[in-house]
Give the backbone structure.
Amino acid sequence: MKERASIVVSIFILTLLVMGTWWAADYSQRAVQIDPPSRLTHERDTWAKKVVLVRTDPKGIVIHRLEGDLMEHFPDDKSYELQAPRAYTLREENPLTVATSKVAFIYDEGDKIVMRGDAVLLRLGDAERQPLNFRSEEITLLVDKDLAYTDLPAVATSGRSKMTGVGMRFNNATQQLDVFKSTDVDIAPKDQREGSEPPAQRANP
C-alpha cells in the first residue's frame, strides 16, 4: 500500500514539474520581445564620391566609361544611383557618344543605365556625318548593344534637321534612328544636298 502511494506521489510531482516547465517556457516567450524579421528597404549601404567606372573588351581596351559626382548602392534591388553622370561609348568600330543627365540609375551590373532629368545623348560628328543630339527627360542605355531608347517625348537634331516624337530608339552601331509615334520630321535641304543628313530614320504610326 505504501509503495503504491509513493508511486502516485512521484507521478504527481513529475506532472507538476512538466507543467511548470511548460508554463515557464511559454511565459518566457511572451515576456521577452522578439524583434520582427528585418525588412529590406530601399536604403543605401555604401557610397563613393568622384567615381570613374570603365568597361573593357576581351583585349583590355576600354569600350565604355562612366563618371559621376556621387554613387550610392542599394542592396534591395542591387542598383546604383549616380549623381551628375557622364557616360562615354568608346568602341573603335562605332562613333563616339556622350550621354549626360541629372541622375543615372545603374542596373544589371552596369549593362543597363537609365539617364533621368534633362537626358542628352550626343553622337559626335566626323567627316561623313554631322553630330546627332538625342534629347529627352529619360534615356535608357544598353551598354553591350550600344543602344539608346526612350518611351517619352524626345527630340533628335543633326545640323539644321530635326525629328520629334514620342518614343525613340537609336542604334549607334547601325546609325538607325526610329521614332514610334507623333512624328514630325524636318530635314534641311542643305543637309540633303551635302549628303550629311541625319542617320537613317523610320517612323512607326
